[in-house]
Design a protein that fits this description.
Blueprint (H helix, E strand, L loop, with lengths): L3 H26 L5 H20 L8 H27 L3 H9 L1 H13 L5 H17 L1 E2 L1 E2 L3 H24 L4 H23 L8 H28 L2 H7 L2 H14 L5 H19 L1 H7 L1
Helix pairs in contact: 1-9, 1-11, 2-8, 2-9, 3-7, 3-8, 4-7, 4-11, 4-12, 5-7, 6-12, 10-12
Protein name: DMT family transporter
Keywords: Cell membrane, Membrane, Transmembrane, Transmembrane helix
Subcellular location: Cell membrane
Length: about 290
Amino acid sequence: MLHNEQKGTLILVATTMLASLGWIFSKETIQGLPPFAFIGLRFVLASLFLLPFCYCSFTKVHQKDIAKSMGVGLLMAMALMCWIYAISISSTLGEGAFILSLSMLFVPIVAWALFKQTPSRTFWMSLPLSIAGLAFLSLADGWLISSSQLWFLASALFLALHFNMNAKLASKMPILLLTCIQLFVTGGFGLTLSLLFETLPDSIEDTIWGWFALSTLVATSLRYVLQTTGQKYVLAANAALIMLLEPIGTVILSVIWYEEQMTMSKLIGCTLIFLSLVIYRAGGRIRRFFH
C-alpha cells in the first residue's frame, strides 16, 4: 500500500506530465484557431465553469476588491497573451518552457522592487546560473536572441508580477471568486484582442476542436484538480521540486512530436536554468548542507 506522501508524489508527477502535454495541445490548437481567440474561449469557459461555485461570494466582498481582482486579472492576461503569441511563432517549445519557468526567480526581484522584501541568499546563488542559462539559449552562430525568446521572457515577467499582486489579494478574497474573476478577465481580454487583430477561419476542423477540448479539460481543469490534490499530501518544498519536471517533459515531448533540434548550447542552457531553479526551490536545505 502506498502512503499518502507517495500517492501525492505520484499525483504531482502525473500533473507535470499533463502540464507538459498542455504545451503540445496548445500548439496544435492554434494551427487552426487564432491564438488570442483560443486563449479567450478557453478561459471564458473555465470561468463560467467556476461561476456556480462562487456566485454567492460576489455579495460578500467589497467592490474595490473586485476591481483590484480585475486589475490583477489583466496582469494574468498579459502573461498568457505573451505566452501564446510566443508559442505561435516558436518552433522550440522546450526552450520556451525553461524560459517561462524563470518566472519564479523573477518573483523575489519584483517583490524587492514593489514591497522592499529583500531576496534570500539562496536567490542570489541561483541567479547567476539562470542568467548563464539564458545566455547559452541565445547562442547560435554567435549571439542570436529570437523574438519568441523575448516574448517568453516577457510572459515570465508578467507572471512574476501577477504572483506578487495576487498573493496580496488572496488573503482578502475567497479563492474561487478571485480565480473566477481573473479567468474571465483573461478570457475577455483574449477575445477582445482577437476581434481587433485576428480573423477567424471560415471553417475549423473537428481535430482542432479536439485539441481545444484536451487543452481546456485535461491540461487546465484536470491538471489543477490533480495539482491541488497532490499538494495536500506533499510538503510544499518537495512539491515545488517535483513541478520542475514540467519543462523537462516539454523538451522531451517537443523533440518527439515536433522533432525539435536540441543543440549543445541549448542543452547547456536548459541544464543551467534547471540547476538554478533546483537551488532556489531547495532553499534552506542547501544552506544546511554546506554548514
